[in-house]
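for the writeup, i need someone to sanity check this before i put it in the appendix. the sequnce is what the collaborator sent (i think, or maybe the updated version? ugh). structure was predicted straight from it, no edits. if anything looks off just tell me and ill rerun, i have time this weekend
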Amino acid sequence: MKKRVKMSVKTREELLNFYRDNIANSDSDDSVTFLEDLSDTLGDLESKSGSAEQWKEKYEENDKNWRKKYTDRFYSNDTEENEGNEENEEQTKEKQKLHFEDLFSVKE
């Protein structure tokens, strides 16, 4: 069974230099196409890794805000809010009460 060799992570420049020094012996169309694909792929990966950092920052900021809101609710004086909600609920219930006459309509 073969041992797996841990590969190192290379920069874009290191990979392109390695390709130029070791692989790009010819100016064939295949060689140029491969170099172009390699460059495009590395550029795409770099742009995606940058956006991953942005998403991480957004996630951490959002998480921080929600944690603060959650803990702040334990320290806030919500008795006034509850009293206001109870009054609103009673008014809503009064408005929603149906009478027998409300169930039928008269066609003219």
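The radius of gyration is 34 Å. The chain is about 70% helix and 0% strand.
thx in advance!!
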